[in-house]
Amino acid sequence: MTTLLEVQGLHKHFGGVQAVNSCSFTAAEGQITGLIGPNGAGKSTAIDLISGFKIPDSGKVRFEGREVQGKTPHVISRMGLIRTFQSPREWPGLSVLENLILACFEPRRERFWRSLRGPSRAEKEKANEQLVEARAILDEFGLFHLRNERAGNLSGGQKRLLEFARMRMAKPRLVILDEPMGGVNPVLGERMAAAVLGFVTAGTSVVIVEHNLPFIERVTDQVVVMAEGRVIAEAPFDQLRGNPAVVDAYLGELPTYDDAES
Amino acid sequence: MIDYLVTVLTEGSIFAIMALGLNIVWGWSGDFDLAFYGYVALGAYMTLVLTVGPATNPTTYILGLTLPFPLAVALAVVSAMVLALIVGAIALRHLRGIYFSIVTLGAVYVLYVVTGQYVPLFNGYNGVSGLFDPMGDVLGLDYSSYSFFYLGLCIAVLIIVLLLTTRLNGSRFGLALRSLREDERAAAAFGRDIYVTKLKAYVLGAGLGGLGGALYAGYLTAFNPSAWSPVETIILYAAILVGGRGSTRGVVLGVAVMVMGLQEATRYLPEIANQPSFAPALRLIITGVVLVLFIRFRPQGILPERRFRDKDPAGKGDAAAVEAMVAGPKLDTGAA
Amino acid sequence: MHEALLTLGFGLVAAAILSLSALAFTLEYSVTNVANLSHGEILTVGAYCAYLVQQHGGGVILSGLAAAAGGGLLALAVHNGVVDRFVRRGIGGLPTFIATLGVSLVIQNVLVIIFGASNLGYAVPQGAPRTVGPFLWTDTEIQIMVSTVVITVLLYVIIVHTRFGKSLRAVSQNRSLARVSGINANRVAALTWLLAGLIGGYAGFILAESVGTFSPYSGFSFFLITLTAAVAGGLGRAVGTLAGGIIVGIALEFFGGYVSASYNLAFAFAILSLVILVRPRGLFVGGRRSVFE
């Protein structure tokens, strides 16, 4: 099992508040790693630091063995690490299909002169293939009939699905999902779980931040628990239950099997 | 009457070229740039100082060459782009929203004050003049036919600009730009270099602004600080907003309505009100009111930007697509 | 040294006018999160109101009151007629900012139609210059500075010690939270704009007094300097804005006195751009951040 993402001693403070304090964990290739912790544990800040949206005060982030801390978001993204955000960030004024097409970053075709000259035959073919693939992915997520709709007009749950569809289109090496169940009707839970598991099948490893613990238990291979900016445990979910530090941090919020089943 | 029509159409095409440039910056890339008219002005000034020959006492300005008009226009466009590269490189680095607007407003005011006060540059408040009928003598045109020639030139340039922007609009470059406008963070998360992409759009837009300014200088024969102020930028914004932000045909319509139409509609007012500044002031009042009303009630404009419409692949007989659709992996919610 | 002190004295007068204008702008910004590009016109309208009163034989006090009233009414009208409607519709800060630019254009040109575009003289008997400590000030200049101090102290008392001030602070911190806790946020915002308008209108009056002439465009030019002071102090922060106004006012006077007065506006914007680029949250807050923080 190879390590895909390695976070080592990450620090970040805002004013006097130490948001992330010596945070270290790893995420393995081909696995789904959960990142959990009570509110204010520093999960979101940690994601921002890993994906380049915030600059760490100190510490290292290695992605596929290369150090990426302090690099800009687009550089990290091009290396194959793409993240989502707490609230869905679709491109609201573009159509659903355009949202999918834009998920594939193509440095050559997006150049100004190339765009001015128009696509070559090979590029046209590629674009056509992309279109076909985009339609198939939209169909898979039940969004096909909405493909010409303005993305901003979708419902909250549909926007989440659109984000998943964009990720599938982009095919990153690793995707970091920031609270994908937030604001989603629990009825869609199974569908979202299937989508998360679908990433691994498609060759994308996953790090997932989520408050919904049954969901975490359902999908993850490994769980990282954060509290007050630190990592307090790193183990498969079923081994966390007896961990006193984790129970302490959650003040006994950790679900029993009964909760998880329901 | 025909002379008047020629005048209105010439001005209209020149303003359409400028507005299409600004539309790249604001319509596609999403930056509310208040420095834009500075690039127009620089284009106009540079065209003049490159064509009208050395300054004679008491006027002073830089260069004072007698280059052929097309070459001067090209160099004017380049200088506008260089200035935009400098301003954009500074302003786009960290600033967005109102902070970007405020800094660009600052940049244009600095430029405005410097051109007005620093006489050796472009002859201060008196400006540069003397560009009569560019290319007229080379082509052997007399006074009466010249205005038709210049109108034709402006329309030809406008058509080229239209072709260029239409092509960019449908390209991946155009689509990527609009993703920055719609959500910058998401664009960065999907690999777009926001700074470089926005800077490209900014410089390109300024280049079209400079081109419009160069043609404007040839049309006005002269240019001075009273011919440009940030107010002119607002008129361009109003035209884009009314026509349809981001939409190429919308921008052309917007210029027709807000520049040519408004000019035409208020044409006979000075006689009525017996006050010289009445008509222009009224035009600006209408422009301001229209700006507010459109932002509030129809921000997408009369001809909204068009999204790519995917036809039903079955209907188009796109066999491969239909096949992919049928054979594609269906999400099995139970099995996963 | 003596000359420098004299310049400092003039700088304090400029700083007084600038501080009032910037405080008014910051008040508008704090409750609506909209940078009001038509703020300069509040000053302009104030100056015209004072001018009209003076033409009809009114004295300095009456002129000042008229200016404040005119500015206040205009600010209230802009808030209730445009800004508030935009904010309530959820139209973002930038589009509303653009709309206020449209409002600015309308007011300027209405004034052009009524009064003409050219400069009007605003002559008040300045009184002989007096020596006050190391400075040399005319009666008018003393009036400007004393009234500025009085207004600033009054404003401080209102913001810190009254119920309205408490609501104002609550709304500026978090409008929806304030509304949930039972504050009529729209009313507070409207009253704050009225208050800002009163101050802005008066600032227009003392600006006209100090410069001696004004036109429909004066307020907008002065607004550009106001913006420098407000941004330097940190948008929406009253104390910072006051400090920003004083620093920028004095800096401009020294620049004008020792380098060149014609480039004053350019200099102001050079400061502004520098501040925004180096410390976008104002001179008095700092930290290292990525673009997205």
List keywords for this structure.
heterotrimer; A: 262 residues; alpha/beta; Rossmann fold; 2 domains; 4-stranded antiparallel sheet; 37% helix; disordered C terminus; C: 293 residues; mainly alpha; two-stranded antiparallel sheet; 4 strands; 75% helix; globular
Topology:
The complex is a heterotrimer of chains A (262), B (336) and C (293).
Chain A: E1 3-14, E2 17-28, E3 32-36, H1 43-51, E4 58-63, E5 66-67, H2 73-78, E6 81-83, H3 96-103, H4 112-117, H5 121-140, H6 156-170, E7 174-178, H7 189-201, E8 205-209, H8 213-219, E9 222-227, E10 230-235, H9 244-250, H10 257-261
Parallel strand pairs in A: 3-8, 3-9, 6-7, 7-8
Antiparallel strand pairs in A: 1-2, 1-4, 4-5, 9-10
Helix pairs in contact in A: 3-6, 5-6
Chain B: H1 2-28, H2 36-51, H3 69-94, H4 97-117, H5 119-122, E1 128-129, H6 143-170, H7 172-182, H8 184-189, H9 194-220, E2 222-223, H10 230-243, H11 248-265, H12 269-273, H13 278-297, H14 313-316, H15 319-327
Chain C: H1 2-32, H2 39-55, H3 60-88, H4 93-115, E1 120-121, E2 130-132, E3 135-137, H5 139-161, H6 163-173, H7 175-180, H8 185-211, E4 213-214, H9 218-233, H10 238-258, H11 264-278
Antiparallel strand pairs in C: 1-4, 2-3
Question: What's a concise summary of this model?
Answer:
The complex is a heterotrimer of chains A (262), B (336) and C (293). Chain B has 336 residues and is mostly helical. Helices cover 70% and strands 1% of the residues of chain B.
Write structural notes for this entry:
The complex is a heterotrimer of chains A (262), B (336) and C (293). Chain A is built from ten helices and ten strands. With 262 residues, chain A is of the alpha/beta class. Chain B is mainly alpha-helical and 336 residues long. Chain B has two domains: 1-228, no CATH class; 230-328, no CATH class. Helix content of chain B is 70%, strand content 1%. Chain B is built from 15 helices and two strands. In chain B, helix 1 crosses helix 10 (230-243), helix 2 runs antiparallel to helix 3 and helix 10 crosses helix 13. Chain B is globular. The N and C termini of chain B lie far apart (76 Å). By secondary structure, chain C is mainly alpha-helical. Chain C has one domain (2-215). Helices cover 75% and strands 3% of the residues of chain C. Chain C has helices at residues 2-32, 39-55, 60-88, 93-115, 139-161, 163-173, 175-180, 185-211, 218-233, 238-258, 264-278, and strands at residues 120-121, 130-132, 135-137, 213-214. In chain C, the strands form two sheets. Chain C has a two-stranded antiparallel ribbon. In chain C, strands 2-3 form a two-stranded antiparallel sheet. Chain C is globular and about 55 Å long. Residues 286-290 of chain C have low confidence and may be disordered. The chains are: A alpha/beta (262), B mainly alpha (336), C mainly alpha (293). Chains in contact: A-B, A-C, B-C. The interface between A and B is large, with 57 and 45 residues.
